[in-house]
Amino acid sequence: MSTLSLAPAFVPTTVRRSTVRLTRRGRLVVFLTSLFVVMTAAFVLAGGAVGTGEAGQPEPTEIVQVAPGDTLWRIASEIATDGDVRGVMNDIERLNALESTGLAAGQKLRVPVLTD
Asked: Where does the sequence pass through the membrane (predicted)?
C-alpha cells in the first residue's frame, strides 16, 4: 500500500508592523515642513505674476448724472462719436462695475472721454 503526504501550499507569515512611530513633536515637524514647502512653492510661483514695472495711465473720464428715462444706450450713443455705441456701453459698464444695463434716476456714472 502506498502513502500520500501533503505539504501545505500556503504558509501564513506573521505581519510585521513598522517600529517607527511619530510622536506629537514629530507630527508637528512633518506638518510645519510640509507647510513651509507649500508656502515656498506658492511664493515662487506668484513671483512671476507681475505685469510690468511701470504704472499705468488712468483713462480720462467724466461724471454724468442719470436723468429720469435715460438708458445706457442713449448715454453711450451721445458719447460715441465714431458710431461704436456697444463699445462705449462696455466701457461704461467696466468703469462703473455695472452688473446690468438698468440705471436709476440720479445715479452718477463715470463715462470715458473720447478724444479724436
From this structure: 27-50
- What are the tens digits of pLDDT across the range 17-63? 777 788 999 999 999 999 999 999 998 888 776 667 777 788 888 99
pTM of the model: 0.51
Span 61-112 CATH architecture: Roll (3.10)
Contact between 69 and 61 under an 8 Å Cβ cutoff? The reply is no
CB 85 within 8 A of CB 101: no
Domain ranges of the chain: 61-112
- Alpha-carbon distance 112 to 75, whole Å? 11
